[in-house]
Fold this protein.
Amino acid sequence: MSTNRVVEVKAKAPDMSETEKLRLAEFYRENRDALEAAFQSASKTDEDPKKKLYEDIAAELTAMGVAVRTVSAVKQKVRDMKQKARNKLSEEVCNSIYFDPGV
């Protein structure tokens, strides 16, 4: 009992270019309040404003021509960039607290 299956393997999109990362950071800065808002639309007929924002930036990044950028990939990149910024800030704070220039 042998069945032949065709497994489709999706190719990984290339890493974001520096231009894409910069545009994504600008997008986040411009829309931070809406993206971080806890409350979403209560109406089932209204489109989720966060979803619309992410769809717009995904389309804009895709239009840059590097690769197709999905909404889920863009959301993940935003999470990764925020985490990297938090880690960097934490590292700088720790270094400034424990650094004694008199030593």
Summary: The radius of gyration is 20 Å.
